[in-house]
Amino acid sequence: MTERIGSFGPARLSRRRFVVGGLAITALGALPTPGLAHTSSRRGERETILVVVQLTGGNDGLNTLVPVAQDAWYRARPSLSRVASGAHELGSGFALHPALGPLAPLFEGGELTCLHSVGHPDPDRSHFRSMEVWHTGSLERRSANERPTGWLARLGEQIIARDGSAPAMLHVGGGALPLSLVGAEGPAPSVADLEQLRPGGGATAAAVRAALYAEPGSEAGDARDVAYLRRTARAAVDLGRRLEDGARAPLAADWPRHELARDLALVARLVRSGLGARIYQVELGGFDTHRGQPTIHAELLRQLGGALAAFQAELSAAGRADDVLTLVFSEFGRRVRENASAGTDHGAAGPVFVLGPAARGGFVGTPPDLEHLVDGDLPHGIDFRSVYATLESRWLGLDPSSDLPGTAFLA
Amino acid sequence: MKSENRFDAPPHPESVRTTTELDRPTAVHVLRRLCFGAAPQDVERFVGESVADAVEQLVEGARSTEPDPAITLLLPTGELGYVQSWWCEQMLGTPEGRCAERVALMWHGHFAASNDKVDDVHLMHGQYRLWRERGLGDFRQLLQAALRDPALLVWLDGVDNVKGRPNENLARELMELFALGIGNYTEADVLEAARGLSGWRVVKRAARFTPSRHDGGAKTVLGTTGELDTNGVVAAVLARPACPRWIADRLWRTFVGRAPTAGDLEATAKELIAANWDIGRTLVWLATRPAFLATDERGTRIAGPIELVVRATLETGARLAPKELAESATHMGQALLRPPSVKGWDGGRQWLDSTAWIARQRFAGRVAEVLGDGDDFDPFERLLPEDPRPSWRVAVERIAQDSESPRRTLVAAVLASAEYQLQ
Predict the structure, then answer these.
(1) Please, which residues have CB within 8 angstroms of residue B406's CB and are 6 or more apart in sequence?
(2) What tens digit of pLDDT does each residue of A376-409 get?
(3) Selected residues 167-186 of chain A with any CB under 8 Å from a CB in chain B
(4) Nearest-CA neighbor of B360 among B405, B307, B403, B397?
(5) What are the residues whose beta carbons fall under 8 Å from the beta carbon of A18, sequence distance 6 or more?
(6) What's the pLDDT at B326?
(7) Is B333 exposed, middle or buried (0-12, 13-18, 19+ CB in 10 A)?
(8) Which domain holds residue B234?
(9) End-to-end alpha-carbon separation of chain B, Å?
(10) Which of A159, B88, B105, B250 could form a disulfide with B322 if both were Cys (CB 3.0 to 4.6 A apart)?
(11) Is B119 a member of any domain?
């Protein structure tokens, strides 16, 4: 189920993604040489975009992508297995939680790819540690003095170094900036809503800013940070203006009204606006369902399914669906056996979803086997770093952060 | 004045500067660095005093101040936002009280624990009390207390550090971040120290030592061998010469705003030991050095979000709710009691990403908006006392003349200027 990706082997290039000089390479006989993968994402040509949706708190994968054909699942979850009745059959013994109805047609149409049992060899039941692992893309335990950098930020910095385009990456949402977007050069911009990036004031304020942050004369280029501060202030104002233009693009899809939908709608707007950012991350929190899981989980998945379906519809309406892949992950799955409070405790591996026509659709990986657990947890089948590697090198055309073999989930 | 040469002067100079009477720009500078800033009447209080007297009053006076006890009514809500707002309110108190808060904020960044993991505002407030009440005292006692602080025990998994199953998280950060710095200990020291620190739990929000969970065997930490417990491990750490240097470095970065030279570091570490590890005395000494006072040392440090919002509020007299200060600082990248990692806030240029810059500009506009009509002052003289004639002044004054409220336009401009972000 995995493949080497270090060399951009020709046979593995996607039909859809590689565009050279405006010509889509569709025939296997006309494959580009290795270096050409990089040209596919240059400015002015079609740019591939990665959107990461983080389910914070540890999503219960076994009640999301439900193994409806396994007796062990019913035995382990006498109360939580009630979701089986309304679940949306996908075939191969799996079904989507009843609240994920909007995703079923996407699976049907090959736009939703389900990766089984994604995790890593050193699972840890701490939210903090697990999130750090996913955010940094590394299992290394760093001393705090070498500040870990986020995997998305490293990608963004590669893009900026190559194309000089900023912002290469953007956090969208009201929560704290995730570590995934903190790089060596500093944090990525974070936007809760565009209002936040409007400096405010009318024409007067704009004129004041222009005067205030003008390039200092030779005399003012002093040892203090004044010149640096003015330069970054100008860049911030400029970013705010570009984002503001992007926000004016009207929405075509029917969007539900909740925070995740609002965040993804903003991402869709910015993608459509041609802002040029290649990487986005948004979050949906509340998945730490130690008690009363049925109600909470259903509501969260309802939001997730509704927002993702609207997002795909929006991109399709804009003709941009082929350019965007959305990765849905959580820091860990939950224990197989339900607890005494109609909930589940911290576990290990769980499913990852990839949305977009550029992924192959269907299932990837060995289905979880509930008869063979490790410490009561699902062991991982696919290393998340190999999922990253594929997204990094084959989707975004960048240097991967690990030399792990990739995972074959692209079309 | 070359900074490398400063300590070529006699080690305890009754330097000319310490006896000099404070002029207004110098008073503003001292108050900004030691207690976030000051309202004009506070500045007047110190103008004309000697530098030494002013610093002595602030730091010594800080020891006897107390924060507002109303917090006990807010904690049961469990809402971190209330605690953040309340803390901001404490930072607007008397100059002496603010000095104690500034020191507490330094320790919060040094021992950076976050409610994101601790997940209990009672514990977070308990830790704040530690920084607030003992932050100016003997660092040896502060470190001993920190290693028994419930929030820190949760934050660094001290509660999971059990005999036979050591968790080295707390031991590592003790050496790496709290007391020594990397390169001043070995991996073996970390492992051995972890054994010594084992046995703590948090029960009913209090740290409890449970002998059956403690590894009482012999171990060797940083050259000290014995059946070390928390007390012994911390003592072994404190005995290393790297420890006073590490703390001296923290004081320099916080109050002088840059890393000290090797000579400065040595002198400050020596001073700390001579003062029996008293942080307050060491701070008084540091704040009367040329490196702290000299005009070319002023305005060289990028103010953190909390420093900026508190300073702007104090200096303009703007009527902003503490909640608004806390939220503005959060937008600028500094959520109190929620530092981004165990290493705290990086500070310096890291403060100014795009969103943070816009947040500072918006905050400037907001302050100008809530200014009372009676608060008529020259924003350049008051807010930029070192350099009231920046290059952009004429251009901005011209724009302001034609605006709806020239005074508010000017105040917003000064607060949003690059120059005002520095202190």
Answers:
(1) B400
(2) 899 999 999 999 999 999 999 999 988 899 999 9
(3) 167, 176-177, 179, 182, 186
(4) B307
(5) A24, A25, A32, A36, A37, A40
(6) 98
(7) buried
(8) 138-240
(9) 19
(10) B88
(11) no
Residues of B in contact with A176 (CB under 8 A): 116, 335, 338, 340
In this structure, is residue B127 part of a structural domain? no
- Is residue B219 within 8 A of residue B225, CB to CB? The reply is yes
User: A15 near A26, Cβ under 8 Å?
Assistant: yes
Write the CA distances from B392 to A213, B217, B405, integer angstroms.
Answer: 8, 68, 19
By C-alpha distance, which of A242, A196, A264 is closest to A49? A264
Indicate the CATH number of A47-195+250-407 among 3.30.200.20, 3.30.70.270, 3.40.1010.10, 3.40.720.10.
3.40.720.10
Interface of B with A in 167-226 (CB under 8 A): 172-173, 176-177, 181-182
Torsion, Cα B193 B195 B197 B198, to 10 degrees, reads 160
Half-sphere exposure of B328 (CA within 13 A, CB side): 28
A225 vs B contacts (CB less than 8 Å): 300, 302, 349, 418, 421-422
**Cβ neighbours for B393, distance < 8 A, ≥ 6 positions apart:** B380
Query: What's the pLDDT tens digit per position in B191-218?
Result: 999 999 999 999 999 999 999 999 999 9
Looking at the structure, tell me whether residues B402 and B310 fall in a common domain: yes
Of B240, B258, B284, the domain-final residue: B240
Taking CA–CA distances from B115, the nearest residue in chain A reads A128
Identify whether residues B315 and B257 lie together within a single domain.
no
Distance from CA of B167 to the nearest CA of A (A): 13
Global confidence as pTM? 0.75
Nearest CA in chain B to A235: B354
Residue B81's H or E segment, with its range, is helix B80-90
Say yes or no: B314 and B409 in one domain: yes
- pLDDT at position B134, please? 98
Q: Is the pLDDT of residue A129 over 90?
A: no
Spans of all domains in chain A: 47-195+250-407
Rounded distance, CA A191 to CA A262, Å? 12
Find all residues with CB under 8 Å of A361, minimum gap 6, and list them.
Answer: A107, A109, A110, A111, A112, A113, A411
What tokens were used for B415? 């607060």
d(C-alpha A171, C-alpha A279), whole Å: 8
Q: Write the DSSP string, A66-114.
A: E-TT-HHHHHH-TTGGGGGTT-EEEETTEEE-GGGGGGHHHHHTT-EEE
Q: What's the ipTM?
A: 0.89
Dihedral angle sign, alpha carbons of residues A94, A98, A100, A103: positive
Tell me, yes or no, whether B233 and B246 share the same domain. Answer: no
Residues B280 and B329 in one domain: no
Whole-number pLDDT of residue A42: 38
Residue where a domain stops, chosen among B297, B330, B362:
B297
8 Å CB contact of A208 and B117: no
Q: What does the DSSP 8-state code read for residue B302?
A: B
Tell me how far apart the alpha carbons of residues A334 and A203 are, in angstroms, rounded to a whole number. 53
B415 and B322 housed in the same domain: yes
Mean pLDDT of A15-27: 31
**Which residues make Cβ contacts (< 8 Å) with residue A245, sequence separation at least 6?**
A273
A190 near B CB under 8 A: yes
DSSP per residue over A195-206, as a string?
GGG-----HHHH
Q: Are A65 and A362 in contact (CB under 8 A)?
A: no
* Same domain as B352, residue B271: no
DSSP letter assigned to residue B209? E
In a domain, B370, yes or no: yes
- Tell me the mean pLDDT in the region A83-94: 97
Give the residue ranges of DSSP H helices in B275-405: 279-286, 290-293, 305-316, 322-331, 354-369, 379-383, 393-401
B358–A198 CB contact, under 8 Å: yes
Please list every residue in chain B whose beta carbon sits closer than 8 Å to the beta carbon of residue A147: 341, 343, 346
